[in-house]
Structures are given as structure tokens and as C-alpha cells.
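Subject: for your reference before the review

Hello V.,

The reviewers asked for a structural picture of the protein, and I figured it would be easier to keep everything in one thread rather than splitting it across files. Below is the amino acid sequence we used in the manuscript, unchanged from the supplementary table.
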Amino acid sequence: SLPARYARAIARFFQGGQGALEASIAEVEALIREKPDNPYFVEVKGDILMRAGKVRESIQPLRQALKMLPDAPLIRVQLASALQNEDTPQNIAESVELLRKSLIEDANSRAFRLLANAYYKQGKLPEADAATAQALFVEGDLKQAQIFAKRAQVKLQPGTPDWVKNDDILNYKPQT
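And here is what came back from the structure prediction:
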């Protein structure tokens, strides 16, 4: 069945060994030829390439999957991660845009951590600290989140969305 072939393609990669990557990609490409309108087949190709360290090659399928499924925050995060690994100013800027849009729909710590990394690479240290604080807060590490929030808030413009979010972290009191 199609789902079984999809699972086998992924499993083949994770089994490892000589030729595992090539065999896995060949199986995924066969699925894509059969169902070219399935964004998840295209996305898994990008994911496998990225996990295999072929980041540059992963960007095109991830872009294609996001084009096919534009409201998929996790595909946006994955593409942003691949772009950051290519580490050009244009890719970092695009990564920030993708992550900020993703975080509107799905506040997950990986996206916040990638955003912090991108801001750091852009030299935006208060924004990097603010994103790190958000990641730590989502992960449940209130003490560390408050340390980063305080550090960020000192240098952020009062009243801006990032300042307010960090103020919320600083004033958060867990319910007992």
C-alpha cells in the first residue's frame, strides 16, 4: 500500500548502511511520481536529505512542499532550519520571516530557538535573548526563561511586542 511504501522509505534511511540514503530517496521519488500533489512525500524527501547532511539539496524540496501546503508551520520551521545551515545573509533573513510567521500559528520551542539563532547571526542580541526566553518558557524552564527575559527587556524598546512578551515571562507566577 502507499502508506506502507512511505513508511518503508523512511525506515530504509534510518536503518542506515551502505546505499541507505540512495535507496530511501529512490523510494520517495517513486512515491512523488505516483502522487505528485502530495506535499508530505516532497517534504519527507527534504527531511531525509537534511538529516543526511545534504542541506543544500534539501532546500528545494522543502520549498516545494511549503508551496504545496502554505499553511504548514512545521514545514516552514524545517525550511528555516535548512536555510540557516546555508548561512548567507539572505537565507538568514528569509529564515527569520518564515519562523516569525510559523510562531503565529504554532509557538514551539524549536522555532523560537532557531529564531534566536538567526537573530544572533544578524547581530540582534536583545531579540535573540527574547526568543531564547520564549523557547525556555515554552519548555517549562521558568527560571532560565526569566534570566533571558530580563536580559532582553533591558535593551528592547518598552511597549514593543517582544518587550511585552518578556514582561509577561518576568511577571509569570505558576499556579500551585
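For the response letter, the relevant points are probably these. The mean pLDDT is 96. The chain has ten helices and no strands.

Happy to draft the paragraph if you're swamped.

O.
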